[in-house]
Design goal:
The protein is mostly helical. The chain has one domain: Up-down Bundle (Chorismate Mutase Domain, subunit A). Helix content is 75%, strand content 0%. The protein binds prephenic acid. One of its GO terms (biological process) is chorismate metabolic process.
Amino acid sequence: MSEGTAPAVGEAASVADEAARERLLYLRGSIDNLDAALVHLLAERFKCTQQVGELKARHSLPPADPAREAAQIARLRRLAEDARLDPAFAEKFLNFIIGEVVQHHRAIADRAVTSGEARAEQPRTTAG
Ligand SMILES: O=C(O)C(=O)C[C@]1(C(=O)O)C=C[C@@H](O)C=C1
């Protein structure tokens, strides 16, 4: 800005541009931190579901549990509403993750069957 005079129109615009650029950088820093947190949270979730998949395969339990999924979706929609997040988006996001988990569960179950690790069905008794 030239000293002792009002800023020229172009100068004022470039000061505003500079402030906008700084704000954008600041917000992008937060977005990067949040994306990193999401990756870590998802990694922890998949560590748990990996163990669930192995447990289910060992005990010949079905990979998907629609009743559990319905309860999770209803809960997440409520949480999203409270947090002012679009519940339809929350549902789509959870369905996307669960779809991936079920695929992993199926792959684990297939491997368990091939390697003979899956627990064989209990033979039916004739008595009773
Ligand atoms: O809780 C289970 O039974 C899981 O296998 C985990 C999970 C999930 O990702 O939350 C995945 C598949 C099921 O249909 C339900 C839930």
